[in-house]
Design goal:
Blueprint (H helix, E strand, L loop, with lengths): L6 E2 L5 E2 L4 H19 L9 H15 L2 E2 L11 E5 L2 E3 L13 E10 L2 E10 L5 H19 L7 H14 L3 E2 L5 E3 L6 E5 L16 E4 L2 E3 L5 E3 L6 E3 L5 E3 L2 E6 L2 E4 L14
Antiparallel strand pairs: 1-2, 3-6, 4-6, 5-14, 6-7, 8-12, 9-10, 11-16, 12-15, 13-14, 16-17
Helix pairs in contact: 1-2, 3-4
The structure holds 2-amino-4-trifluoromethylsulfanyl-butyric acid (MF3) and cobalt (II) ion (2 copies).
């Protein structure tokens, strides 16, 4: 029997119950802990396949299940997106070079609840331009989360992110978005990282979704490589992304995927 908590809005967005927040916090914490623990394994000369192998072991050790292994034919416990890769980078034998920036995205399932989070890492030394890209992307996510409260719309979230990114003369990727989640990986709504204030569905208490802006130093256009997963910037410019899973409470967003060690941003902690 399928468990269905709460009700659906007219836009098909599930309104979860109070007790469901605990399940999301538990799942989100495991995903965030894995992202904390993988940090020392990111260094020049390391392969992304080895990083993914370690993540696979961490998922197993945590007693959770990887949401990505077997998802639409994907075969890895993480997506690792290096430099101009926007998202859905497939771990492989290629090794990291000094100054490479990478997003690692992990989703686990615990007691049926999905915890989905990603953050940026650097191999070796961080250049000034990469540091600025990472900072703006991080801050854009946090501004989006601040706009995520009852009465605001999804357009308000997208607008907060887009306005900030473009004020910093960077661009927001349009081709990929955040998503509702809970006891499923991807559910309504599509959470766009751009938009106009007051447009889109109105946020309500009990909504669970991700915000996961991808920001490019150059133009926003992307293309998907022949492997059918890897999305890259068309102009080969650097791209960054941060992702949290959140739940809406009466007074604003609760973040399910907070770093237990306070290491969400690569230059923190
Ligand atoms: N975790 C990604 C997201 O944020 C989805 C990855 S699906 C995969 O939605 F199959 F590429 F792993
Ligand atoms: Co996601
Ligand atoms: Co993700």
């Amino acid at each position: 029997m399928t468990k269905h908590n709460g009700r659906l809005t007219k836009d098909g967005i599930r309104i979860h119950e109070d007790a469901d927040f605990a399940g999301m916090h538990a799942a989100g914490k495991v995903a965030a802990q894995i992202l904390d623990d993988i940090a020392p394994h990111v260094f020049p000369g390391q392969s992304t396949a080895e990083i993914d192998r370690i993540i696979t072991d961490m998922v197993t050790a945590s007693g959770t299940t990887s949401a990505t292994i077997g998802y639409r034919g994907y075969q890895h416990a993480s997506c690792i997106s290096v430099n101009h890769v926007v998202c859905h980078g497939i771990p492989g034998p290629k090794t990291l070079k000094d100054g490479d920036i990478l997003n690692i995205d992990v989703t686990v399932i615990l007691d049926g609840w999905y915890g989905d989070t990603s953050r940026m890492y650097v191999a070796g030394n961080l250049s000034r331009k990469s540091e600025r890209l990472i900072q703006v992307t991080h801050d854009a996510l946090m501004l989006g989360i601040e706009a995520a409260k009852p009465g605001n719309t999804f357009g308000d979230i997208g607008n907060a992110i887009q306005t900030y990114v473009e004020a910093n003369r960077m661009s927001v990727v349009r081709d990929f978005c955040g998503h509702g989640l809970g006891t499923v990986f991807h559910a309504p709504p599509n959470v766009l990282h751009y938009g106009r204030p007051g447009t889109g569905p109105v946020l309500e208490e009990g909504m669970f979704f991700t915000i996961e802006p991808m920001v490019n130093l150059g133009r926003p256009e992307t293309k998907v490589l022949a492997d059918d997963w890897t999305a890259v910037t068309r102009d080969k410019s650097l791209s960054a992304q941060f992702e949290h899973s959140i739940g809406i409470r009466a007074d604003g967003a609760e973040i399910f995927t907070l770093s237990p060690a306070g290491k969400f941003h690569p230059t923190y902690g």
